[in-house]
Design goal:
This protein is of the alpha/beta class and 558 residues long.
């Protein structure tokens, strides 16, 4: 145990303004072209929680292969820490975190844990094979959580925080502690708990705005007061984790950085519980664009932002809104004649960033129907996908099917096809065998389908609907013997042109459990049918995972 230091010592204004000191997290170097050279004082670490908090979004259920693919892409992006999951919650999540820890090199690999002994043990066993493992443990410090959720006392919270950090330090050096719901808690009590965590050896203190309640100026004052109450906070990394319930996650995170935080917890496309987290791409480009004024930047390779956004969107089924900052399809589009005139004369008249700096490049042609397996593998490797054996054969088969229908197959087409195949792996459930649809303006559309069932058998169904896709969905329900309710349905095009690949995302609900599915095809009905059966499979997998949960009921996390 570290020597207890006097609690509540105040600092001078100049000391309060100083930035935190060194930490064992040096940050993995980003591949490609990261930001300019920075002093440690101006280096902001990116803690990505897409695979943990992001996956807690309603309807998202990533399989092991999908999580690995996202983790590898996050490493290419150059994030400093990957929070790979919450290992105690299910065997599947434990195995995914363990696989990421063993296979993904570069970033710190972190597992989340409550303060119970079995949580910390599970997190350690999941991340222990990483070259740079970390345990992130948390407990609430707000009275509303202590009284109503934990149903305990402040003294017990302090004891649990001390025990959890001490236990984690027995396993590894890098331990992060979060006082959950800190921004609605009494700052003095939160400071007491933080001091205890520091005494036990926590190397990062994360301050969560768990319900997205605070405001920038209020958050700045809160962090400043913590520095006054806990002088030792200056010797570790101060982190912030802000939710977007009032649309202030990025603004509050930025306020935290200006107040002294040198780590921001965020998620790709801003996904996460309820209204989501601070958007990784917005935080990165805010610091990159205004670095001359604020003297801070990250080590992220910003040219990988657009691709990372597309990958996460496809694998989660959460579409990116067109006007989303940085990665939305309209982020660099100009409709107004005045704006178009200005940009044509000088880009900086209406653009504060170059689209190429976030990875939005021209959609260059890659392959055609005469391209062979070797050319496909080389093209995929250039894009960061490593496929061999059966995985390459499957991708090649899908590529040939698409190439026969399209004159030209682009890099974005290949990206969509490969991620589409990733969704099919590691999900035991339903599979579409075939479908046929009769559609006419004179009578309701009629669909017949055949579906492989989870037990290996085959089910067939037929139904009419309001349109051909609705008829297919109803026929799939009949074939699978389920009463699924369609929650969301979106259609997009991967690229431009009449022969573009169509991409469909659906969210269904089966007996109270939601599941998201995606499908890609030049035939939009085929894409929709693929997406629907995958959504049914995900809902089924989530139901089984809920039944297999280990330990205590799962909380949302910081």
């Amino acid at each position: 145990m570290r020597q207890r230091k006097e609690f509540g010592t105040t600092m001078s204004d100049s000391e309060t303004a100083s930035t935190p000191g060194a930490s064992p997290r040096s940050g993995a170097p980003a591949q490609g072209t990261p930001g300019p050279e920075r002093t440690e004082q101006g280096r902001v670490r990116v803690f990505d929680t897409t695979l943990r908090d992001g996956e807690q979004s309603p309807g998202i259920s990533l399989n092991r292969q999908e999580k690995l693919e996202i983790a590898h892409q996050l490493a290419r992006l150059g994030v400093d820490i990957i929070e790979a999951g919450f290992p105690i919650t299910s065997p599947g999540d434990f195995e995914s975190v363990q696989a990421i820890a063993r296979e993904v090199e570069g970033p710190v690999i972190c597992g989340l844990a409550r303060t119970s002994k079995q949580d910390v043990d599970a997190a350690w066993n999941a991340v222990r094979d990483s070259e740079r493992p970390c345990i992130h443990t948390f407990i609430s410090t707000s009275d509303i959580h202590i009284v109503h959720q934990l149903q305990t006392t402040r003294e017990d919270v302090k004891g649990q925080a001390r025990a959890a950090v001490a236990q984690a330090k027995q396993y590894l050096e890098d331990v992060e502690f979060s006082p959950m719901d800190a921004t609605r808690a009494e700052v003095e009590f939160t400071a007491e708990v933080i001091q205890i965590a520091l005494e036990e050896g926590a190397t990062t203190i994360n301050i969560p705005d768990t319900v997205g309640y605070t405001m920038p100026q209020e958050f700045t004052a809160f962090l400043g007061r913590l520095y006054e109450l806990v002088p030792d906070l200056r010797d570790v990394v101060l982190s912030v984790h802000c939710h977007d319930d009032l649309g202030l996650a990025v603004a509050n995170s930025f306020a935290g950085v200006l107040a002294g935080a040198r780590q921001v917890e965020c998620a790709v496309n801003g996904i996460g519980e309820r209204a989501g987290n601070a958007s990784l791409e917005e935080i990165v480009m805010l610091l990159r664009t205004r670095r001359a004024d604020i003297g801070m930047d990250t080590g992220v390779n910003s040219t990988e932002l657009a691709r990372t956004s597309r990958l996460v969107s496809r694998l989660t089924g959460y579409q990116v809104q067109p006007n989303k900052a940085i990665v939305g399809r309209n982020a660099f589009a100009h409709e107004s004649g005045i704006h178009q005139d200005g940009v044509l004369k000088e880009r900086s008249t209406y653009e504060i960033m170059d689209a190429t700096t976030v990875g939005l490049k021209s959609n260059s042609l890659v392959l055609g129907k005469h391209s062979g397996r070797h050319a496909l593998r080389d093209a995929l490797e250039e894009m960061g996908f490593q496929l061999d054996g059966q995985a390459l054969n499957t991708a090649f088969k899908r590529f040939k099917e698409i190439a026969d229908r399209k004159k030209q197959v682009t890099a974005m087409d290949l990206e969509a096809l490969v991620t589409d195949e990733l969704r099919s792996e590691d999900i035991s459930g339903y599979a579409l065998d075939w479908f046929e649809v009769e559609a006419s303006s004179r009578r309701p559309p009629h669909a017949r389908v055949s579906v492989t069932l989870p037990d290996g058998g085959t089910g067939e169904g037929s139904f009419t609907g309001d349109g051909p896709i609705d008829a297919v969905f109803r026929a799939i329900n009949a074939a699978a013997g389920v009463e699924a309710k369609l929650g969301e349905f979106t259609i997009g095009a991967v690229t431009e042109g009449q022969d573009a690949l169509g991409e469909v995302s659906v969210v269904v609900e089966v007996e109270g459990m939601s599941g998201a599915g995606q499908g890609v095809s030049t035939d939009i009905i085929d894409a929709a049918a693929r997406a629907y059966v995958r959504a049914l499979s995900v809902a089924r997998a989530r139901a089984h995972a809920s039944a297999d949960v280990l330990g205590l009921p799962e909380p949302a996390g910081p």
